[in-house]
Amino acid sequence: MDYTNERVLVMKIIRVRDAKEGGRKAFDIMNEEIKKGAVQVLGLATGSTPISLYEEIVTSSLDLSDKISINLDEYVGLSEESPQSYHYFMKEHLFAAKPFKKSYIPDGLATDEAAECQRYDQVIKENPIDLQILGIGKNGHIGFNEPGTSFTKKTHKVALTESTIEANKRFFDKAEDVPIYAYSMGIASIMKSKQIILMAYGDGKVDAVSKMVDGPVTTEVPASILQQHPNVILIVDEAAAAGLA
Ligand code: GLP
């Protein structure tokens, strides 16, 4: 489905040299917003992209113990003790050093999948996200909302695409170990966040970044819907920005 006739806003783009500088910029923006009292609930992402931001947070004096965090996604079938789970990732990169008052992540081991999605939607409803951190997949996915996902989706179980399994296999011993399903916050919920910071680094993201910013708003490039969000900041390094108009 094409959404080109909808209102398209101009995204704010910050160009940085590399992920290190990008993490610092993202941290400065987040820190300012927190100081202003504008952030009670932080939406968090996994993957290699937000690591430099989390490093900045961990080495800062920022106290998050009165804040709430809500993560985007989790692999179906992995427990929080599994080193490849997003739960584990968050503990390792952020929560161990900077605990929140409460942190929410979908439960990869939930036995009732529909109930887990409903539970997560309720969490998001009760804790509206003030600032959402995002990365982007090579195919333009955000969270685990793969191409073709309706923009109206809330939390759902996703069948991961070949390209995402291929991209994420670096975190596993072999491609066969990568779970083929995940729970993901839906695009409708991401779009409700008051503010979004999306970071993209490296030449592997050139295509996704250029389609997200300059291409038509289409479910084939999930991140392109962000053109219709009123408050998005993109932090891109030179390599990822190479295809921008
Ligand atoms: C995964 C995550 C996304 C992330 C993407 C890109 O699919 N579910 O939230 O944005 O990977 O990962 P990376 O930052 O490692 O390139």
Blueprint (SSEs and pairs):
Layout: E1 12-16, H1 19-35, E2 41-44, H2 51-59, E3 68-71, E4 73-75, H3 86-95, E5 102-104, H4 113-126, E6 131-134, E7 156-159, H5 162-168, E8 181-184, H6 187-192, E9 195-200, H7 206-214, E10 232-237, H8 238-241
Parallel strand pairs: 1-10, 2-3, 2-6, 3-5, 6-9, 9-10
Antiparallel strand pairs: 4-8, 7-8
Helix pairs in contact: 1-2
Bound molecules: 2-amino-2-deoxy-6-O-phosphono-alpha-D-glucopyranose.
The site of 2-amino-2-deoxy-6-O-phosphono-alpha-D-glucopyranose has 14 residues, from helix 5.
Structural description of this entry:
By secondary structure, this protein is of the alpha/beta class. It has one domain (12-237): 3-Layer(aba) Sandwich (Rossmann fold). 31% of the residues lie in helices and 18% in strands. The chain is built from 8 helices and 10 strands. The chain has helices spanning 19-35, 51-59, 86-95, 113-126, 162-168, 187-192, 206-214, 238-241, and strands spanning 12-16, 41-44, 68-71, 73-75, 102-104, 131-134, 156-159, 181-184, 195-200, 232-237. The chain has a 7-stranded parallel sheet with strand order 1-10-9-6-2-3-5, with helices on both faces. A 3-stranded antiparallel sheet has the order 4-8-7, covered by helices on one side. Helix 1 (19-35) packs across helix 2 (51-59). The two termini are 24 Å apart. The mean pLDDT is 95. The site of 2-amino-2-deoxy-6-O-phosphono-alpha-D-glucopyranose has 14 residues, from helix 5.
